[in-house]
Amino acid sequence: MSNIRGFRIQHDSLTEKQRIFIDDFSKRYTEKTKKSKNYISSNRYHLCDWMNSLGFKLSLKEMLYPIISHSSEGAYFTDIDGNRYIDIAMGYGVCFHGHKPKFVYDAIKERLERGFELGPQTVESGEAAYLIHHLTGVDRVTFCGTGSEAVMFALRIARGFTRKKKIVIFANSFHGTFDGVLGKMAEDITIPVSPGTTEGMVEDLVVLEYGSDAALDYIRKNADGLAAVMAEPVQTRNPSLRPVEFLKEIRKLADEKGFLLIFDETVTGFRVHYGGIQKLFDIKADIVIYGKALGGGMPIAAVCGRDDVMKIVDGGYYSFGDETYPDPYVIFFAGTYYKHPLSIVATLASLKEIKRNGNHLQEYTNNLTSILVEKLNNLFKQKSVPIVVHSFSSFFRFITVDPYPFVSDPIELEILFLLMILKGVYTWERRICYLSTQHTIQDVEDIVKIVDESIDEMRSGGFSFTF
């Protein structure tokens, strides 16, 4: 039976003191966020929303519902009950510039007044593509709607260009929801991870251990059959793993054997450095995927890459007034909302802000995150809390350690996050966290204080949560 969202449909083994604590905590949490809970309850039937049940645990059922937002600005949002939160979810990493940045707001407002027609193209699309080229060094850019779509097109481009089938990805990476990457290894074959994804969708997918010698050996031995190796260079699920030399070796093998190297920088692009991981690690990929921070809060993604590779999208460069023409060997590529005028002007505004600031925005958020992570890890060490915060750039994750192994999904970690929400620090259900350019050192101090208070309160309720 598949359980890809980690549902726990049996009660945890709890002491009487722990049950009393959870009951009292649930009442306080529900009272503070009752409009959110009522909204979820009244809309559960007709609004089929996967977020409602993500990470379900029967013992915490009465507190497991999304918080419903009313408004946001900077590093904060306010829910429909009027509670204000320091946001460390930041739109799953989308809101690098914070919520409602003025330069994005103004750009969207101006475009709204002019109209947001589809069909005719916009001048801003070319400007945005040029800025991506200028900042990251990619040759050419094509836009689509989401990171998942960008992954789908990147793989289609790679297979079309190389005329080969096999794709290598790595365990613990996240590449969105396209069926073609929803696989895992079972001995020597790849099987789907989700009901509804067929074996045929993943039969040409190979999932290897990221950063391992075994992965390099496989790639070397099977390179002739590979269309591409795709990596999330720093995995959001494991941000402490940064195998730079491993990636450089794959780059070398790709050059020697003719497969393509794809970087999925949906999260890292423009967040870690204005030039992304390519600039930071000094490794040039053949295809790069950007999203999240790219759009300034609006939905957009980009597939970028070498001129000779990307020409399979549009036939390549040709001129008017002569006999040149596009190459007819092109992939199928289409999308109604790609280059939507509102998303494009938001993207252009975001890119202009990044270009104007050089790398100062990234340096600020990276430094602020380092301070926060150091303070949290010192706190956990001082209080003997079995958590280590792993981070890279301005994203981070709370990882439990023995005797509360992370893979066991300890209830204590979920209680900690719910207590943080109760006290005014919000993160989403997957608990991958981000800071933005609008967070401050005071926010860092407040977050640490709330985490400290939450640990004490949990322990007072009978959860020792210690080494």
Q: What are the key terms here?
A:
467 residues, Aspartate Aminotransferase, domain 1, alpha/beta, 2 domains, seven-stranded mixed beta sheet, four-stranded mixed beta sheet, Aspartate Aminotransferase, domain 2
The CATH class of the largest domain? Alpha Beta
CATH architecture of the largest domain: 3-Layer(aba) Sandwich
**Which residue ranges are poorly predicted, with pLDDT under 50 across at least 5 consecutive positions?**
none
Strand order of the largest sheet: 4-12-11-10-9-5-8
| Beta content | 15-25%
The rounded Rg comes to: 23 Å
CATH fold label of the largest domain: Aspartate Aminotransferase, domain 2
- Helices, by number, come to 14
Q: How many domains in all?
A: 2
The general outline is: globular
Question: Helical amount among residues, as a percent range?
Answer: 25-40%
Family: Belongs to the class-III pyridoxal-phosphate-dependent aminotransferase family.
GO molecular function: pyridoxal phosphate binding; transaminase activity
Keywords: Aminotransferase, Pyridoxal phosphate, Transferase
Pfam families: Aminotran_3 (PF00202)
